[in-house]
Specification:
Elements lengths: L2 H27 L2 H21 L5 H18 L2 H24 L9 H18 L5 H24 L1 H21 L8 H20 L2 H4 L11
C-alpha cells in the first residue's frame, strides 16, 4: 500500500468511526433527523475504505447492498421491509462469493460449528414463527437461513470474520424479535445498529487482509 493510500484509509476509518459514534449517540437521544442522515452514509464509507485497502469487488458490493437495506428499513412498511431484507440477502450472497474466491471451502467448517449454527437457526425460527405475521414467516425463515450459512462460512474463513457473522445474526435476531413482539432491551434500535455496524466492520476488516487481496487456495481470510 502506498503512502497516499495509507493516509486515505486512515481518514476513511476515522470518518467511519465518527459517523458510527454520531449515529449511535443520536439513537440514544432520539435525534431522528441525525439518525436518518447518518445511517445511509455508514456502509458507503466502509465500502470505499475496503476498496482503498485492496478488497475485491464482492466486499464493497456486500456493503452497498447493506446500504440499500438500511435505507429501505428506514422507510418503514411491509413492502419496504421485504425489499430491504432482499438487499441484505444479496449482501450475504456477495460475502459467500468473497469467501469462495479467497479459497474457503465447506470442508474447512468444523462439524460442531455447523451443528451449533443449524440448531440456533432452527430454534430461533421455531420460537419466532407463532409471533410473526403469516406473510412474513417464510421470507424471514429463508432469509435467516441464508444469513446463518453466511455466518457459518465467515466462521470457517477466520476469527475476525467469524465474529462479524455471529454479530450479524444477533442484530437480525433483535429485529425479528421486534416483529414477533418479543421483549427487547431498552432502546432496541441502538443495540440493533451497534451489533450490525460492528458486524460489517469485522467482516470488512477481516476480508481486507492480504489473504483476500491475493487469494490462495489453501489460505484463510484472516489469521487466527
Amino acid at each position: 500500500m502506498t503512502a497516499a493510500a495509507g493516509r486515505a484509509t486512515t481518514v476513511l476509518r476515522a470518518l467511519f468511526a465518527l459517523l458510527t459514534a454520531v449515529h449511535l449517540g443520536a439513537l440514544l437521544v432520539d435525534a431522528t433527523t441525525v439518525v436518518h442522515l447518518t445511517k445511509p452514509a455508514l456502509m458507503p464509507v466502509l465500502a470505499v475504505w475496503a476498496l482503498a485497502r485492496g478488497g475485491p469487488w464482492p466486499l464493497p458490493a456486500a456493503l452497498l447492498c447493506g446500504c440499500g437495506g438500511d435505507v429501505l428499513l428506514q422507510i418503514g412498511g411491509e413492502t419496504a421491509f421485504l425489499a430491504g431484507m432482499g438487499c441484505f440477502a444479496a449482501g450475504h450472497l456477495c460475502y459467500l462469493t468473497l469467501f469462495a474466491r479467497a479459497g474457503w471451502r465447506w470442508r474447512r467448517t468444523a462439524p460442531w460449528a455447523a451443528a451449533g449454527y443449524g440448531t440456533a437457526w432452527l430454534g430461533t425460527v421455531a420460537l419466532l414463527w407463532p409471533g410473526l405475521a403469516a406473510q412474513l414467516r417464510l421470507p424471514v425463515a429463508g432469509y435467516s437461513l441464508l444469513l446463518t450459512v453466511m455466518a457459518l462460512a465467515a466462521l470457517g474463513a477466520g476469527v475476525r470474520t467469524g465474529l462479524g457473522g455471529a454479530l450479524f445474526m444477533l442484530s437480525d435476531t433483535l429485529i425479528a424479535a421486534g416483529l414477533a413482539d418479543w421483549p427487547r432491551p431498552p432502546v432496541p434500535q441502538f443495540w440493533i445498529m451497534a451489533t450490525y455496524i460492528a458486524a460489517q466492520w469485522l467482516l470488512t476488516a477481516g476480508a481486507t487482509r492480504d489473504a483476500v487481496a491475493r487469494p490462495a487456495p489453501e489460505r484463510a481470510l484472516v489469521s487466527p
